[in-house]
Design a protein that fits this description.
single chain; 551 residues; mainly alpha; 2 domains; two-stranded parallel ribbon
Length: 551
């Protein structure tokens, strides 16, 4: 073969590599990253620059409250999740078999639902204060002291009770994967139970605990319903205030950039800590640690310690919401509730299907391409999950509204009056869900495809199968379970998402999350409760799937 033929063959190979799969993979990356880029562009080029005004007035308060909330929730969830994980993985005590799964159930409860339930339970007319007045003969609120319910402290408790399972599930997995030999050596050297936890168990599980705590802190930044209900002004509420009340998208984008910088700093610190803390097993004979039976009062103390987060994060909100939901059957036949349910299933289901398909397409396209650019863009597509919904809404709605108006004007010149097709429909909402939860689908597809032996698709290609046929006939049957799990998890997250939904929903378009928030904000928990129960029911399905996958 001559040198000219070799060069020509290389050119043909390069052209073949520019297949629809690789082009589509890069296009998906661009779509996912576009809202983040748009936020920074709008912040640097605002129509009305109020950055100086923000710094001198509200921004310090927003930032201070956000940092206090993140730190408080992070410390509390790390303590609750790690402590509960250590107890159920190392000790046998009454109820441990069902408690280890029950501790996952608060994942099904959106934090804002827990906030509504706590206020209803502890407010002046609630059962706690009513019972205290009846017990001690008090007549009015001036006769006794009761802590302020709508406060920073209450927000910390509610968010911690709803989010600690993120730490618990990762810490429990880390504790279960540790070798029993280390425990036995520490015990033989005279280390007590607390010393073994501090010197052996905790250091080995620290990367997993740090990862779970980082997720919790990012979810805390994203929260709007809880902090808004408790009147705690954070960066997320600041985005809503500046955008909707002051009508300044540039200022909202500038606050959104502060949120993004916080999130990026948090992710960087978490990944840096995991790089510095790596532990390896030096033996191929792994023997998991056994469970020590706790006797007498210690066993019941462990049971109570694990019951507290379960009761606070699941039993209390479900009991309060369910009592209201069952109070009147007429609320379940409300046509507005049915319309919100249909809207939720429609947009959440559409977004879940599109997100998972795009995730599979992207991962498969990057694997086929082998080029540097798609490989570099692949991990960047996960940043949407770290970005709060309010931030993504800023990055999606403003550029999309600009394009939508230009497209409507162009079509009008051709004689077609179609109105605003993207921002006037649920398109922007579906797009925000896809970007926000793309990391779940991408991660599931990447992990599942990584477990498929390369010889299988190579054999299929050698037998004449196309790339699409190989994906359908070889990969899909092997990754079906992971893709199905991702589909359900993305759908559940779409159902619970509140900030992006509130900012991007079309006029007179309610989902279950927005209906629950609107009714609860009007102190009408009775009408909000059926929608909240439906959200919890959907979340329960995901938690059941998660528990089954982690057996």
């Amino acid at each position: 073969m001559t040198e000219m033929q070799t060069v020509a063959g290389r050119k043909r190979l390069s052209l073949r590599e520019l297949s629809p799969w690789s082009i589509g993979a890069v296009l998906i990356c661009v779509i996912v990253l576009a809202p983040i880029i748009a936020v920074f562009w709008m912040a640097l080029n605002p129509t009305e620059n109020i950055w100086g005004h923000l710094i001198s007035t509200t921004l310090p308060r927003y930032l201070r409250n956000t940092l206090i909330l993140m730190a408080s929730v992070g410390v509390l969830t790390a303590s609750m999740g790690t402590g509960a994980a250590w107890l159920v993985s190392r000790y046998a005590f009454p109820g441990v078999r069902w408690l280890q799964w029950a501790l996952l159930l608060p994942l099904a409860i959106p934090a804002y639902v827990g906030a509504y339930a706590l206020v209803d339970f502890l407010e002046y007319a609630g059962p706690v204060q009513t019972g205290l007045r009846a017990l001690f003969g008090w007549q009015t609120a001036r006769d006794y002291w009761f802590p302020e319910i709508r406060s920073m402290g209450a927000a910390v408790i509610v968010l911690s009770a709803a989010l600690y399972p993120y730490v618990y599930i990762l810490a429990r997995a880390a504790f279960r994967e540790q070798s029993g030999a280390g425990e036995e050596v520490a015990r033989s050297l005279g280390a007590g139970a607390f010393a073994r936890f501090c010197r052996v168990g905790l250091p080995l599980a620290r990367p997993a605990i740090a990862a779970g705590t980082a997720i919790v802190m990012m979810e805390t930044v994203n929260d709007f319903g809880t902090v808004d209900y408790f009147a705690v002004q954070t960066l997320t509420t600041g985005i809503f205030s500046v955008w909707l009340e002051s009508n300044n998208a540039g200022g909202a984008a500038q606050i959104a950039c502060v949120v993004l910088m916080l999130v990026i700093l948090l992710v960087t610190l978490e990944k840096s800590s995991r790089r510095k803390l790596q532990f390896f097993s030096l033996t191929t004979r792994h023997r998991p640690p056994g469970q020590t039976a706790l006797t007498h009062g210690w066993g019941w103390a462990a049971t109570i310690a694990c019951l507290i987060p379960f009761l606070a994060g699941f039993v209390l909100p479900v009991s309060v919401i369910l009592s209201h939901a069952l109070g009147s059957s007429d609320r379940w036949s409300d046509p507005e509730l049915l319309r919100a349910l249909v809207n939720t299933v429609a947009v959440g289901g559409t977004a879940a299907v599109l997100t998972v398909l795009a995730g599979v397409f992207l991962v498969y396209g990057v694997r086929l391409s082998g080029r540097t650019l798609p490989k570099l863009l692949l991990p960047l597509t996960t940043i949407g999950y770290a970005a709060p919904g309010a931030v993504l809404a800023v990055g999606i709605l403003i550029p999309l509204a600009f394009l939508d108006n230009r497209l409507a004007d162009f079509l009008e010149t051709l004689g077609f009056d179609v109105g605003l097709m993207m921002t006037g429909s649920a398109f922007a909402l579906v797009l925000s869900y896809c970007v926000r939860f793309f990391a779940i689908a991408q991660g599931a597809a990447d992990g599942a495809m990584g477990r498929v032996s390369p010889s299988l698709p190579m054999a299929a290609r050698s037998l004449g199968r196309t790339k699409g046929q190989t994906l359908r006939e070889v990969y899909f049957p092997l990754i079906r379970a992971s893709v199905g799990s991702a589909l359900l998890l993305v759908f559940v997250d779409c159902v619970k998402e509140l900030p992006a939904t509130m900012l991007l929903r079309p006029f007179n378009f309610d989902t279950l999350a927005t209906r629950v928030h609107d009714q609860a904000s009007l102190e009408n928990l009775g009408d909000a409760s059926p929608g909240a129960i439906l959200i919890v029911a959907v979340g329960m399905i995901a938690v059941g799937l998660l528990a089954r996958a982690n057996r």
